[in-house]
Specification:
single chain; alpha/beta; TIM Barrel; Sulfite Reductase Hemoprotein, domain 1; 2 domains; eight-stranded parallel sheet; five-stranded mixed sheet; 12 helices; 41% helix; elongated
Length: 352
């Protein structure tokens, strides 16, 4: 797929846009001023493959905590700011690598200029973060009171113009909505007007299952059209799951490869092994592996052998046993109780 051209920016040493890989990010759900809890969660996100992390800055204590947090982590950190320009200034002073804000809600043009000046001095990019749930009354009035894709795009263009008026162009853009078609349309509207990198996401997406579906559709459709430079999957759950889902979306589109890809059948009456338990055990054991590798866990002899041969390591189930494949060749038959151990051992041999 041909990727939309976007100018490249750098955030804490991470390149976004241009021909850089799609960057995976997430957001902590701890109180930022609780430094130990925030650091612990960021380290878990780092281990999962997160490349940028955003934290909420609702008060000055959270802003000043950034300095201590950064001394314990390796990820670039983005400060999420609303309403008070002084929080943005303090976040920059305490080492934020990026800001997420809406210039229109932090106190007027004079105060935006102060933030922009500080951000420019330290090469701190700013994400214009438009959200369908918080559009200005004046914008909504123009669109019948509804947060349409056109309303979101207009809001983004207005915020961008404000930063450009101050000769600031270290900009990322997002136009998020919980309405997936609206989110897609808003990004498409902007894609032909801007060359700034896009941060993709579906906001307030919901629980793990419903949120994964919404994010996969919204982010996946845009990425398949070459639109998007960094992604944040939004889920009401452990943010580590956001990172896992993001990588699965990228893997499915052939854009990024990380960790073990498990191919498994949905099972039917032909399945003669306990495939549910096998998949759960194997997935849990192999989750720390970051090397791209394909593992097939198939329950019967119909499609199983073909899928297992195509994987790096695979199992095709039989009655009380499974045939173990590696790189297309049969290794041996393994009794059902020993299947997970045998497969896990073969995978670890390949990556070590």
């Amino acid at each position: 797929m041909k990727r939309r051209f976007s100018r490249q920016i750098t955030l804490g040493g991470i390149s976004i846009g241009g021909d850089s890989p799609i960057v995976v990010q997430s957001m902590t759900n701890t109180q930022t001023k609780d430094v130990p809890a925030t650091v612990h969660q960021i380290k878990r996100l780092t281990y999962a493959g997160c490349e940028l992390v955003r934290v909420a800055i609702p008060d000055m204590e959270s802003a000043t905590a950034l300095r201590q947090i950064k001394s314990h982590i390796s990820l670039p950190i983005i400060a999420d700011i609303h309403f008070d320009y002084r929080l943005a200034m303090a976040a920059i002073e305490n080492g934020a690598d990026g800001l997420r804000l809406n210039p229109g809600n932090i106190g007027g043009r004079k105060k935006v200029k102060e933030v922009v000046s500080a951000a420019r001095d330290r090469a701190v990019p700013i994400r214009i973060g438009v959200n369908a749930g918080s559009l200005s009354k004046s914008i909504l009035k123009n669109y019948g009171g509804h947060p349409t894709p056109e309303a979101m795009a207009e809001s983004a263009m207005g915020h961008i113009q404000m930063l450009e008026d101050f000769d600031f162009r270290l900009i990322k853009v997002s136009v998020k909505s919980s309405n997936v078609p609206h989110m897609i349309a808003a990004y498409q509207l902007l894609a032909g007007k801007l060359d700034y990198p896009f941060h993709l996401g579906v906001t307030e997406a919901g629980s793990f299952v419903s949120g994964t579906v919404k994010n996969t559709l919204g982010i996946g459709v845009l990425l398949s059209q070459g639109i998007g430079d960094t992604v944040r999957v939004s889920l009401t759950c452990d943010p580590v799951e956001e990172v896992r889902v993001a990588y699965e979306i990228l893997r499915a589109l052939g854009l990024r490869q990380r960790g073990v890809e498990i191919i498994s059948c949905p099972t039917c009456g032909r399945c003669q092994i306990d495939l549910f338990a096998l998949v759960e055990e194997v997935e849990r054991a192999l989750s720390p592996i970051t090397t791209p590798i394909k593992v097939a866990l198939m329950g019967c002899v119909v499609n199983g052998p073909g899928e297992a041969r195509e994987a790096d390591v695979g199992i095709a189930g039989g009655l009380g046993y499974g045939t173990l494949f590696k790189k297309g060749k049969v290794l041996r038959k393994v009794a059902e109780p020993d299947l997970s151990k045998a497969l896990i051992e073969e995978v670890r041999k390949m990556v070590n």
